[in-house]
Amino acid sequence: MTVRLRSVEEDDLPFLHRLTSDPDSTGEFQWYGFQNPHRLRERWQDNGMLSDDGGILVIANGDVRVGFVSWSKQVANRASYYWSMGLIVAPEHRGQGHGTQAHRLLVRYLFDHSMANRIEASTEISNLAEQRALEKSGFTREGVLRGCGFRAGQWRDGVLYSVIRSDLQEKP
User: Where does the record place the N-acetyltransferase domain (predicted)?
Assistant: First the structure.
């Protein structure tokens, strides 16, 4: 399995829309209701899904699209920022390690191409598969975020994870 990240191309837009707007494709933890069907195209036409404040990249296994990663800049204080990241893997590719590898690749990319010292990711407390993927890819569990996310008519607890530059230096 050769997972890589690549920029979004125009013919990826239907795939991205499926993973963000189709309840059968988003997965239990990512379904937040139907989305504007033009939103992704407008963003792609505006900046190709890449900006100084964040972006989206396609997760590919060879020539096959398996999902996408996204990140956004979060201001820590006047002098610094960190990245918040997430991903969605298509249902037909889940459970094969693509998410773990994509996390690792995006962490390396963000640390190599920005001054940020911290990258964080969060997930619902009941999303054990994502928690395992984050831990396998070098993230440290920081704690529970009580009632932080609203989905499917209920407020849900989350779990916050992070990785900082020195974490990568400590590991071979």
Answer: 3-157
Closest by Cα among 78, 92, 156, 165 to 124: 156
Q: What does the domain layout of the chain look like in residue ranges?
A: 3-170
Report the C-alpha gap between 123 and 45 in whole angstroms: 29
Pairwise CA distance, residues 141 & 120, whole Å: 10
Give strand pairing partners of 57. Answer: 7, 69
pTM of the prediction? Answer: 0.90
SS3 call for 30: coil
Tokens in use for 61? 């296994």
Q: How far apart are CA 30 and CA 77, in angstroms?
A: 29
Enumerate the β-bridge partners of residue 84: 72, 120
Structure tokens at 87: 């991903």
The fold of the 3-170 domain, in CATH, is: Aminopeptidase (3.40.630)
pLDDT, one tens digit for every residue, the chain (172 residues): 689 999 999 999 999 998 888 776 666 666 566 778 788 899 999 999 999 999 999 999 999 999 999 999 999 999 999 999 999 999 999 899 999 999 999 999 999 999 999 999 999 999 999 999 999 999 999 999 999 988 888 899 999 999 999 998 865 5
